Amino acid sequence: MWDGIIIGGGLAGLLAGIRASERGKHILIISEGVGSLTYSSGALDFGDAGQLLNQENHPYALLGETSIRAGMDYFQRLFPDYQGKWGVTQNLLTPLGSPRKASIVPYGQNAESLQDARRIVLMAPDGMKDFFPEIIKTNLERSYPQCVVEVYPFRVGAFESWHAIGKSVTGMEYAKYWQSGPGISELKRVLNCLTMIFDGEVSSKKNETAVLFPGIATAFSDPLKEILSETPFPVIEMTAFPPSASGHNLYCALKQKFKSLGGELLFGTGVQRIELQGKLCDKAIVKSKGRYTAFSARSFILATGGIFGGGIEVTPEAAQETVLGLPLYVPAELTNSEFLGEQPYAHMGIEVDSELRPTGPGNKEVLFENLRVIGRMLAHWDPWTDNCGGGVSLATGWFAGEKL
Ligand SMILES: Cc1cc2nc3c(=O)[nH]c(=O)nc-3n(C[C@H](O)[C@H](O)[C@H](O)COP(=O)(O)OP(=O)(O)OC[C@H]3O[C@@H](n4cnc5c(N)ncnc54)[C@H](O)[C@@H]3O)c2cc1C
Known about the structure:
- By secondary structure, the protein is an alpha/beta fold.
- About 30% of the residues lie in helices and about 20% in strands.
- It is built from 13 helices and 17 strands.
- Strands 1, 2, 11, 12, 13, 14 and 17 form a seven-stranded mixed beta sheet that branches. A four-stranded parallel beta sheet has the order 8-7-9-10. Strands 3-6 form a two-stranded antiparallel sheet.
- α1 packs parallel to α11 (about 245-260) and α1 (about 10-20) packs parallel to α13 (about 390-404).
- It is elongated.
- It starts with a strand and ends with a helix.
- The mean pLDDT is about 95.
Protein backbone atom coordinates (compact mmCIF):
# COMPACT_ATOMS: atom_id res chain seq x y z
CA MET A 1 0.00 0.00 0.00
CA TRP A 2 1.22 3.51 -0.88
CA ASP A 3 1.35 6.29 1.69
CA GLY A 4 -0.12 8.56 -0.93
CA ILE A 5 -1.44 8.50 -4.47
CA ILE A 6 -1.49 11.78 -6.37
CA ILE A 7 -3.81 11.95 -9.34
CA GLY A 8 -2.37 14.41 -11.87
CA GLY A 9 1.27 15.25 -12.48
CA GLY A 10 1.26 18.97 -13.30
CA LEU A 11 2.91 21.67 -11.19
CA ALA A 12 0.65 21.11 -8.16
CA GLY A 13 0.78 17.29 -8.17
CA LEU A 14 4.52 17.06 -8.76
CA LEU A 15 5.35 19.60 -6.07
CA ALA A 16 3.12 17.76 -3.58
CA GLY A 17 4.84 14.51 -4.55
CA ILE A 18 8.30 15.98 -4.11
CA ARG A 19 7.55 17.43 -0.67
CA ALA A 20 5.85 14.25 0.57
CA SER A 21 8.67 12.03 -0.78
CA GLU A 22 11.24 14.26 0.87
CA ARG A 23 9.38 13.67 4.13
CA GLY A 24 9.92 9.94 3.66
CA LYS A 25 6.50 9.06 2.25
CA HIS A 26 6.08 6.37 -0.41
CA ILE A 27 4.28 8.19 -3.23
CA LEU A 28 2.76 7.20 -6.57
CA ILE A 29 1.75 9.88 -9.07
CA ILE A 30 -0.64 8.74 -11.79
CA SER A 31 -0.86 11.21 -14.65
CA GLU A 32 -2.67 11.11 -17.91
CA GLY A 33 -0.69 13.92 -19.58
CA VAL A 34 1.99 16.53 -19.02
CA GLY A 35 -0.14 19.37 -17.60
CA SER A 36 -0.10 23.07 -18.41
CA LEU A 37 3.47 23.96 -17.50
CA THR A 38 4.72 23.15 -20.99
CA TYR A 39 2.28 25.74 -22.34
CA SER A 40 3.20 28.39 -19.81
CA SER A 41 6.03 30.92 -19.97
CA GLY A 42 8.01 29.13 -17.29
CA ALA A 43 7.72 32.17 -14.99
CA LEU A 44 5.42 31.84 -11.98
CA ASP A 45 2.92 34.48 -10.95
CA PHE A 46 1.69 34.92 -7.40
CA GLY A 47 -0.60 37.89 -8.12
CA ASP A 48 -1.36 40.57 -5.57
CA ALA A 49 -1.21 38.20 -2.59
CA GLY A 50 -2.05 40.95 -0.07
CA GLN A 51 -5.38 41.55 -1.77
CA LEU A 52 -6.14 37.90 -2.67
CA LEU A 53 -5.58 36.79 0.95
CA ASN A 54 -8.64 38.86 1.83
CA GLN A 55 -10.81 37.57 -1.02
CA GLU A 56 -13.44 35.27 0.49
CA ASN A 57 -12.91 31.57 -0.33
CA HIS A 58 -9.86 32.25 -2.52
CA PRO A 59 -7.29 29.39 -2.09
CA TYR A 60 -4.84 31.98 -0.68
CA ALA A 61 -7.40 33.01 1.96
CA LEU A 62 -7.83 29.34 2.97
CA LEU A 63 -4.10 28.68 3.25
CA GLY A 64 -2.98 31.95 4.82
CA GLU A 65 0.16 33.97 4.15
CA THR A 66 2.57 31.76 6.15
CA SER A 67 1.83 28.68 4.04
CA ILE A 68 1.98 30.56 0.73
CA ARG A 69 5.33 32.08 1.65
CA ALA A 70 6.60 28.68 2.81
CA GLY A 71 5.59 27.18 -0.56
CA MET A 72 7.37 29.97 -2.42
CA ASP A 73 10.55 29.58 -0.34
CA TYR A 74 10.47 25.80 -0.67
CA PHE A 75 10.23 25.99 -4.46
CA GLN A 76 13.24 28.29 -4.65
CA ARG A 77 15.26 26.05 -2.34
CA LEU A 78 14.47 23.14 -4.67
CA PHE A 79 15.29 25.12 -7.81
CA PRO A 80 17.76 27.95 -7.16
CA ASP A 81 17.61 28.72 -10.90
CA TYR A 82 14.23 30.31 -10.13
CA GLN A 83 14.47 33.65 -8.39
CA GLY A 84 11.90 35.81 -6.61
CA LYS A 85 10.98 37.57 -3.39
CA TRP A 86 7.69 37.75 -1.57
CA GLY A 87 5.81 40.89 -2.59
CA VAL A 88 8.35 41.87 -5.26
CA THR A 89 7.84 41.41 -9.00
CA GLN A 90 10.46 41.38 -11.72
CA ASN A 91 10.36 42.42 -15.35
CA LEU A 92 10.50 39.86 -18.12
CA LEU A 93 9.63 40.06 -21.81
CA THR A 94 6.63 38.54 -23.55
CA PRO A 95 7.13 36.77 -26.91
CA LEU A 96 6.19 40.10 -28.57
CA GLY A 97 8.80 42.07 -26.67
CA SER A 98 6.57 43.90 -24.18
CA PRO A 99 7.68 43.94 -20.57
CA ARG A 100 5.51 42.28 -17.99
CA LYS A 101 5.92 41.47 -14.30
CA ALA A 102 6.18 38.04 -12.64
CA SER A 103 6.93 36.84 -9.11
CA ILE A 104 9.38 33.98 -9.70
CA VAL A 105 11.44 34.17 -12.85
CA PRO A 106 13.75 31.51 -14.28
CA TYR A 107 17.45 32.23 -14.64
CA GLY A 108 17.98 34.18 -17.85
CA GLN A 109 14.49 35.70 -18.24
CA ASN A 110 15.00 38.59 -15.83
CA ALA A 111 14.90 41.73 -17.98
CA GLU A 112 15.60 44.35 -15.29
CA SER A 113 18.92 45.29 -16.94
CA LEU A 114 16.99 46.75 -19.91
CA GLN A 115 16.13 49.74 -17.69
CA ASP A 116 19.80 50.81 -17.78
CA ALA A 117 20.52 49.89 -21.41
CA ARG A 118 20.93 52.41 -24.21
CA ARG A 119 21.02 49.84 -27.00
CA ILE A 120 19.12 46.55 -27.34
CA VAL A 121 20.36 43.98 -29.84
CA LEU A 122 17.63 41.53 -30.77
CA MET A 123 19.04 38.25 -32.02
CA ALA A 124 16.92 36.92 -34.89
CA PRO A 125 17.53 33.22 -35.59
CA ASP A 126 16.59 32.41 -39.15
CA GLY A 127 13.22 30.75 -39.76
CA MET A 128 12.13 30.63 -36.12
CA LYS A 129 8.42 29.91 -35.88
CA ASP A 130 6.14 32.42 -34.12
CA PHE A 131 8.96 34.97 -33.89
CA PHE A 132 8.20 38.45 -35.21
CA PRO A 133 11.32 40.65 -35.01
CA GLU A 134 9.70 43.79 -36.45
CA ILE A 135 6.81 43.72 -33.97
CA ILE A 136 9.22 43.00 -31.11
CA LYS A 137 11.44 45.90 -32.21
CA THR A 138 8.46 48.28 -32.28
CA ASN A 139 7.32 47.17 -28.82
CA LEU A 140 10.82 47.48 -27.38
CA GLU A 141 11.20 50.99 -28.81
CA ARG A 142 7.90 51.94 -27.20
CA SER A 143 8.73 50.42 -23.80
CA TYR A 144 12.39 51.49 -23.67
CA PRO A 145 12.43 54.87 -25.44
CA GLN A 146 15.97 55.55 -24.18
CA CYS A 147 17.25 52.60 -26.30
CA VAL A 148 18.18 52.12 -29.91
CA VAL A 149 16.93 48.71 -30.99
CA GLU A 150 18.90 46.76 -33.60
CA VAL A 151 17.91 43.41 -35.11
CA TYR A 152 20.78 40.97 -35.64
CA PRO A 153 19.71 38.17 -38.04
CA PHE A 154 21.80 35.02 -38.00
CA ARG A 155 21.65 31.57 -39.55
CA VAL A 156 22.26 28.28 -37.80
CA GLY A 157 23.91 25.67 -40.04
CA ALA A 158 22.23 22.77 -38.25
CA PHE A 159 18.85 23.86 -39.59
CA GLU A 160 19.93 24.54 -43.20
CA SER A 161 18.17 21.42 -44.49
CA TRP A 162 14.97 22.51 -42.69
CA HIS A 163 15.10 25.96 -44.30
CA ALA A 164 15.77 24.34 -47.69
CA ILE A 165 12.42 22.54 -47.62
CA GLY A 166 10.59 25.52 -46.10
CA LYS A 167 10.18 23.97 -42.66
CA SER A 168 10.23 26.43 -39.78
CA VAL A 169 12.05 25.72 -36.51
CA THR A 170 10.06 26.07 -33.29
CA GLY A 171 11.41 27.78 -30.19
CA MET A 172 11.40 24.36 -28.46
CA GLU A 173 13.61 22.94 -31.22
CA TYR A 174 16.02 25.87 -31.08
CA ALA A 175 16.19 25.56 -27.27
CA LYS A 176 16.95 21.84 -27.53
CA TYR A 177 19.66 22.55 -30.09
CA TRP A 178 21.36 25.20 -27.92
CA GLN A 179 21.61 22.61 -25.14
CA SER A 180 23.32 20.03 -27.36
CA GLY A 181 27.11 19.78 -27.82
CA PRO A 182 27.08 21.28 -31.37
CA GLY A 183 24.60 23.94 -30.22
CA ILE A 184 26.83 25.03 -27.36
CA SER A 185 29.79 25.41 -29.74
CA GLU A 186 27.63 27.38 -32.18
CA LEU A 187 26.31 29.62 -29.41
CA LYS A 188 29.85 30.38 -28.28
CA ARG A 189 30.72 31.28 -31.88
CA VAL A 190 27.71 33.58 -32.28
CA LEU A 191 28.35 35.34 -28.96
CA ASN A 192 32.08 35.68 -29.75
CA CYS A 193 31.17 37.35 -33.07
CA LEU A 194 28.98 39.83 -31.17
CA THR A 195 31.71 40.49 -28.62
CA MET A 196 34.19 41.24 -31.41
CA ILE A 197 31.74 43.61 -33.12
CA PHE A 198 31.08 45.41 -29.83
CA ASP A 199 34.82 45.52 -29.01
CA GLY A 200 35.36 47.64 -32.08
CA GLU A 201 32.91 50.27 -30.81
CA VAL A 202 33.32 53.25 -28.54
CA SER A 203 33.12 52.06 -24.94
CA SER A 204 29.97 53.96 -23.90
CA LYS A 205 27.92 52.18 -26.58
CA LYS A 206 29.31 48.76 -25.81
CA ASN A 207 28.88 49.09 -22.05
CA GLU A 208 25.24 50.00 -22.36
CA THR A 209 24.21 47.17 -24.66
CA ALA A 210 21.84 44.35 -23.74
CA VAL A 211 21.26 41.34 -26.01
CA LEU A 212 17.89 39.62 -26.34
CA PHE A 213 18.03 35.98 -27.29
CA PRO A 214 14.75 34.23 -28.20
CA GLY A 215 14.51 30.44 -28.33
CA ILE A 216 16.97 29.68 -25.58
CA ALA A 217 16.24 28.35 -22.07
CA THR A 218 19.19 28.57 -19.71
CA ALA A 219 17.64 27.48 -16.41
CA PHE A 220 18.82 23.98 -15.38
CA SER A 221 21.68 24.01 -17.94
CA ASP A 222 25.07 24.65 -16.33
CA PRO A 223 26.96 24.88 -19.66
CA LEU A 224 24.54 27.54 -20.97
CA LYS A 225 24.65 29.50 -17.72
CA GLU A 226 28.44 29.43 -17.85
CA ILE A 227 28.60 30.70 -21.45
CA LEU A 228 26.13 33.51 -20.78
CA SER A 229 27.87 34.56 -17.56
CA GLU A 230 31.09 35.09 -19.53
CA THR A 231 29.72 37.59 -22.06
CA PRO A 232 30.65 41.25 -21.49
CA PHE A 233 26.97 42.22 -22.03
CA PRO A 234 23.79 40.90 -20.40
CA VAL A 235 21.96 38.26 -22.46
CA ILE A 236 18.23 38.10 -21.77
CA GLU A 237 15.86 35.34 -22.80
CA MET A 238 12.40 36.10 -24.06
CA THR A 239 9.43 33.97 -23.10
CA ALA A 240 7.92 32.03 -26.00
CA PHE A 241 4.48 31.32 -27.38
CA PRO A 242 3.26 27.90 -26.23
CA PRO A 243 4.70 25.34 -26.10
CA SER A 244 7.62 26.88 -24.26
CA ALA A 245 11.02 25.37 -23.58
CA SER A 246 11.26 27.14 -20.19
CA GLY A 247 7.95 25.73 -18.98
CA HIS A 248 8.83 22.31 -20.34
CA ASN A 249 12.26 22.35 -18.65
CA LEU A 250 10.62 23.16 -15.33
CA TYR A 251 8.20 20.28 -15.84
CA CYS A 252 11.16 17.91 -16.56
CA ALA A 253 13.08 19.21 -13.52
CA LEU A 254 10.06 18.58 -11.24
CA LYS A 255 9.65 15.06 -12.60
CA GLN A 256 13.33 14.29 -12.21
CA LYS A 257 13.38 15.61 -8.64
CA PHE A 258 10.34 13.52 -7.71
CA LYS A 259 11.91 10.34 -9.12
CA SER A 260 15.27 11.06 -7.50
CA LEU A 261 13.51 11.07 -4.13
CA GLY A 262 12.13 7.59 -4.77
CA GLY A 263 8.71 8.65 -6.06
CA GLU A 264 7.04 6.54 -8.74
CA LEU A 265 5.29 7.99 -11.75
CA LEU A 266 2.72 6.14 -13.80
CA PHE A 267 2.46 8.28 -16.90
CA GLY A 268 0.10 8.24 -19.86
CA THR A 269 -2.84 6.65 -18.15
CA GLY A 270 -5.69 8.19 -16.21
CA VAL A 271 -7.45 7.28 -12.99
CA GLN A 272 -10.95 6.18 -13.99
CA ARG A 273 -12.48 6.27 -10.53
CA ILE A 274 -11.80 5.84 -6.83
CA GLU A 275 -13.18 2.99 -4.77
CA LEU A 276 -14.42 4.18 -1.40
CA GLN A 277 -14.73 2.79 2.10
CA GLY A 278 -17.21 5.00 3.89
CA LYS A 279 -15.70 8.49 4.17
CA LEU A 280 -12.30 7.26 3.02
CA CYS A 281 -10.83 6.91 -0.46
CA ASP A 282 -9.38 3.43 -0.76
CA LYS A 283 -8.22 2.47 -4.27
CA ALA A 284 -7.45 4.31 -7.50
CA ILE A 285 -8.66 2.36 -10.51
CA VAL A 286 -6.60 2.72 -13.64
CA LYS A 287 -7.33 1.28 -17.06
CA SER A 288 -4.26 0.40 -19.05
CA LYS A 289 -3.93 -1.84 -22.13
CA GLY A 290 -7.54 -2.92 -21.71
CA ARG A 291 -7.10 -4.07 -18.09
CA TYR A 292 -8.21 -2.46 -14.85
CA THR A 293 -5.65 -2.21 -12.04
CA ALA A 294 -6.32 -1.02 -8.48
CA PHE A 295 -3.74 0.93 -6.45
CA SER A 296 -4.35 1.31 -2.69
CA ALA A 297 -3.16 4.18 -0.54
CA ARG A 298 -3.71 5.73 2.88
CA SER A 299 -4.17 9.21 1.42
CA PHE A 300 -5.04 10.72 -1.94
CA ILE A 301 -4.47 14.06 -3.63
CA LEU A 302 -6.58 15.24 -6.56
CA ALA A 303 -4.49 17.49 -8.83
CA THR A 304 -6.21 17.00 -12.17
CA GLY A 305 -5.96 20.57 -13.43
CA GLY A 306 -9.56 21.82 -13.82
CA ILE A 307 -11.10 22.28 -17.25
CA PHE A 308 -7.76 22.68 -19.07
CA GLY A 309 -6.13 19.67 -17.36
CA GLY A 310 -9.10 17.33 -17.83
CA GLY A 311 -10.21 17.22 -14.18
CA ILE A 312 -13.49 18.98 -15.00
CA GLU A 313 -15.57 18.04 -18.00
CA VAL A 314 -18.00 20.64 -19.28
CA THR A 315 -20.83 19.82 -21.68
CA PRO A 316 -23.69 22.11 -22.77
CA GLU A 317 -25.81 20.39 -20.11
CA ALA A 318 -23.52 20.12 -17.10
CA ALA A 319 -20.07 20.31 -15.55
CA GLN A 320 -18.60 17.28 -13.82
CA GLU A 321 -15.52 16.40 -11.79
CA THR A 322 -14.12 13.42 -13.71
CA VAL A 323 -12.62 11.05 -11.10
CA LEU A 324 -14.90 11.00 -8.03
CA GLY A 325 -17.85 13.01 -9.26
CA LEU A 326 -17.19 15.50 -6.46
CA PRO A 327 -19.67 18.36 -6.15
CA LEU A 328 -18.51 21.42 -8.07
CA TYR A 329 -19.02 25.08 -7.42
CA VAL A 330 -20.52 26.37 -10.69
CA PRO A 331 -21.29 30.10 -11.01
CA ALA A 332 -24.86 30.95 -12.07
CA GLU A 333 -23.60 32.81 -15.18
CA LEU A 334 -20.64 31.10 -16.85
CA THR A 335 -19.43 33.82 -19.20
CA ASN A 336 -19.02 37.55 -19.39
CA SER A 337 -19.67 39.23 -22.74
CA GLU A 338 -16.66 41.51 -22.17
CA PHE A 339 -14.00 39.42 -23.92
CA LEU A 340 -11.03 40.45 -21.79
CA GLY A 341 -13.05 40.78 -18.57
CA GLU A 342 -13.17 38.31 -15.73
CA GLN A 343 -14.86 35.09 -16.90
CA PRO A 344 -17.02 33.56 -14.14
CA TYR A 345 -16.49 29.98 -15.39
CA ALA A 346 -12.84 30.27 -14.25
CA HIS A 347 -14.13 30.16 -10.66
CA MET A 348 -15.60 26.71 -11.23
CA GLY A 349 -14.01 24.06 -9.04
CA ILE A 350 -14.16 22.10 -5.82
CA GLU A 351 -14.82 23.84 -2.52
CA VAL A 352 -12.51 22.76 0.30
CA ASP A 353 -11.81 23.46 3.96
CA SER A 354 -8.60 25.03 5.28
CA GLU A 355 -6.94 21.58 5.09
CA LEU A 356 -7.88 21.44 1.38
CA ARG A 357 -10.31 18.55 1.95
CA PRO A 358 -13.41 18.66 -0.29
CA THR A 359 -16.59 19.90 1.34
CA GLY A 360 -20.25 19.43 0.52
CA PRO A 361 -22.09 21.96 -1.66
CA GLY A 362 -22.90 25.08 0.32
CA ASN A 363 -21.81 23.58 3.68
CA LYS A 364 -18.46 22.94 5.30
CA GLU A 365 -18.92 19.22 5.86
CA VAL A 366 -15.78 17.30 4.88
CA LEU A 367 -16.65 14.65 2.28
CA PHE A 368 -13.50 12.48 2.46
CA GLU A 369 -11.04 12.62 5.35
CA ASN A 370 -8.04 11.32 3.37
CA LEU A 371 -8.43 13.35 0.17
CA ARG A 372 -6.98 16.78 -0.60
CA VAL A 373 -7.68 18.87 -3.68
CA ILE A 374 -5.02 21.21 -5.09
CA GLY A 375 -4.05 23.52 -7.94
CA ARG A 376 -6.41 24.40 -10.74
CA MET A 377 -9.11 22.04 -9.39
CA LEU A 378 -9.94 24.47 -6.58
CA ALA A 379 -12.95 26.78 -6.73
CA HIS A 380 -13.19 30.56 -6.34
CA TRP A 381 -10.21 31.91 -8.23
CA ASP A 382 -9.25 33.00 -11.72
CA PRO A 383 -5.65 32.42 -12.81
CA TRP A 384 -5.88 35.10 -15.50
CA THR A 385 -7.44 38.06 -13.72
CA ASP A 386 -5.97 37.16 -10.29
CA ASN A 387 -2.67 36.51 -12.09
CA CYS A 388 -1.72 33.72 -9.69
CA GLY A 389 -1.86 30.47 -11.73
CA GLY A 390 1.58 29.28 -10.68
CA GLY A 391 1.24 30.67 -7.14
CA VAL A 392 -1.91 28.72 -6.25
CA SER A 393 -0.58 25.43 -7.69
CA LEU A 394 2.74 25.87 -5.99
CA ALA A 395 1.38 26.90 -2.57
CA THR A 396 -1.41 24.28 -2.43
CA GLY A 397 0.95 21.58 -3.79
CA TRP A 398 3.51 22.33 -1.11
CA PHE A 399 0.81 22.38 1.61
CA ALA A 400 -0.68 19.02 0.56
CA GLY A 401 2.80 17.43 0.39
CA GLU A 402 3.53 18.75 3.87
CA LYS A 403 0.30 17.28 5.28
CA LEU A 404 0.28 13.93 3.50
C1 LIG B 1 -1.23 28.68 -21.89
C2 LIG B 1 -1.00 28.85 -20.42
C3 LIG B 1 -0.10 29.84 -19.99
C4 LIG B 1 0.12 30.03 -18.62
N1 LIG B 1 1.02 30.98 -18.20
C5 LIG B 1 1.27 31.14 -16.90
C6 LIG B 1 2.22 32.10 -16.44
O1 LIG B 1 2.85 32.80 -17.22
N2 LIG B 1 2.40 32.23 -15.08
C7 LIG B 1 1.74 31.44 -14.18
O2 LIG B 1 1.96 31.59 -12.97
N3 LIG B 1 0.83 30.55 -14.59
C8 LIG B 1 0.59 30.38 -15.91
N4 LIG B 1 -0.34 29.45 -16.32
C9 LIG B 1 -1.12 28.73 -15.30
C10 LIG B 1 -0.35 27.59 -14.66
O3 LIG B 1 0.53 26.99 -15.59
C11 LIG B 1 -1.37 26.57 -14.14
O4 LIG B 1 -2.29 27.23 -13.30
C12 LIG B 1 -0.73 25.45 -13.37
O5 LIG B 1 0.37 24.91 -14.06
C13 LIG B 1 -1.79 24.39 -13.13
O6 LIG B 1 -1.18 23.30 -12.49
P1 LIG B 1 -2.04 22.07 -12.01
O7 LIG B 1 -1.05 21.07 -11.53
O8 LIG B 1 -3.12 22.49 -11.09
O9 LIG B 1 -2.79 21.52 -13.32
P2 LIG B 1 -2.21 20.92 -14.69
O10 LIG B 1 -0.89 21.47 -14.99
O11 LIG B 1 -3.29 21.08 -15.70
O12 LIG B 1 -2.03 19.38 -14.37
C14 LIG B 1 -3.11 18.50 -14.27
C15 LIG B 1 -2.62 17.10 -14.60
O13 LIG B 1 -3.63 16.15 -14.28
C16 LIG B 1 -3.69 15.17 -15.31
N5 LIG B 1 -4.99 14.49 -15.24
C17 LIG B 1 -6.22 15.01 -15.51
N6 LIG B 1 -7.17 14.06 -15.28
C18 LIG B 1 -6.52 12.95 -14.86
C19 LIG B 1 -6.94 11.65 -14.46
N7 LIG B 1 -8.22 11.29 -14.45
N8 LIG B 1 -6.00 10.74 -14.08
C20 LIG B 1 -4.69 11.07 -14.09
N9 LIG B 1 -4.23 12.30 -14.45
C21 LIG B 1 -5.13 13.22 -14.84
C22 LIG B 1 -3.44 15.97 -16.57
O14 LIG B 1 -3.05 15.15 -17.63
C23 LIG B 1 -2.32 16.90 -16.08
O15 LIG B 1 -1.06 16.28 -16.20
C24 LIG B 1 -0.57 29.23 -17.67
C25 LIG B 1 -1.46 28.24 -18.10
C26 LIG B 1 -1.68 28.05 -19.45
C27 LIG B 1 -2.65 26.99 -19.87
